[in-house]
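This section describes the prediction task in plain terms. A model, or a person checking by hand, is given the sequence of a single protein chain and must write out its three-dimensional structure as a string of tokens. No templates, partner chains or ligands are provided. The sample shown here is typical of the held-out split.
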Amino acid sequence: MAIIATATRATRRSAAPGASRAYGTSLEVPTPPTGTGAVFHSRMQPPKYSLSNAKWFGIFFAMNLGAYGGNFFYLRFLMRQNPPNPPRDPENTGRPERHMHSVDDDE
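The expected answer:
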């Protein structure tokens, strides 16, 4: 376990500082013209909530997995199943003499 921790620390130190957390812009910060006062650019007010692509897609796929898994669980284990249809009566004793939607032919 100590070998893995040491290797992880060495990898972090060798990586470029800030490379793993660079969510902002690589553009140059503009300077305001003289005499205009303080201009609030985007580096003064960073976004309150900022997720990397890996975190966002991780949350997105976890949400989808939970939604589909919950639906499957409900349909499979909680919802009642319909009973099977009864077998047909071969004699058909409940058959009406005349169909209710038939056309009346008065001849």
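For orientation: Helices lie at 2-14, 53-78.
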